[in-house]
Design brief:
CATH superfamily: Nucleoside Triphosphate Pyrophosphohydrolase
Protein name: NUDIX domain-containing protein
Organism: Sphingomonas corticis
Order of helices and strands: EEEEHEEHEHEH
Keywords: Hydrolase, Magnesium
Number of domains: 1
Helix content: 10-25%
CATH topology: Nucleoside Triphosphate Pyrophosphohydrolase
Cofactor: Mg(2+)
Oligomer: single chain
Family: Belongs to the Nudix hydrolase family.
């Protein structure tokens, strides 16, 4: 992992582009107390000793109920942000793409934090993303999807 910015904690993370047969992407909405609501892809921090691939599979299962191999990494990014716990981090994000015909999202193991933040999932058509009134992360999600289309 690249050196983190001074005073920021390093945070390895696995993120998943979950795409259905209609080319929609699954995003989760979070409503923290300290900032406006935001939407992001499934995923989260890599546990100590865990590979990015194992973390992607675990996070996908915990957040969506899907237990599948997430395949190879399709992108890597390093980003600075403030976590919901108010910790400044430099995240080394590894991105995976999983394509499914369809899936009814049912979190297998939501964390206490996900429950507290009102985490809710929704499938987004690509044309909805650009005009959505709330923040969607990453900002270039449509480009990422297009780059990873098969």
């Amino acid at each position: 992992m690249p050196n983190s910015t001074p005073n920021r904690m390093p945070r390895p993370a696995a993120r998943i582009l979950l795409v259905d047969a209609q080319r929609r992407v699954l995003l989760f909405r979070f409503a923290p107390d300290d900032r406006p609501p935001l939407w992001c892809t499934p995923g989260g921090a890599v546990d100590p000793g865990e590979s990015y691939e194992a973390a992607a599979r675990r996070e996908l299962h915990e957040e969506t109920g899907l237990d599948v191999d997430c395949g190879a990494q399709v992108a890597q990014r390093t980003v600075d942000f403030l976590t919901f716990e108010r910790v400044e981090v430099t995240a080394d994000e590894r991105w995976f793409r999983v394509d499914v015909d369809a899936h009814e999202v049912a979190a297998a193991a939501p964390t206490e934090q996900e429950v507290r933040l009102g985490m809710q999932g929704r499938w987004f058509a690509r044309e909805e993303i650009a005009r959505w009134p709330e923040t969607i992360y990453p900002a270039d999600l449509i480009e990422m999807l297009e780059e990873t289309d098969r």
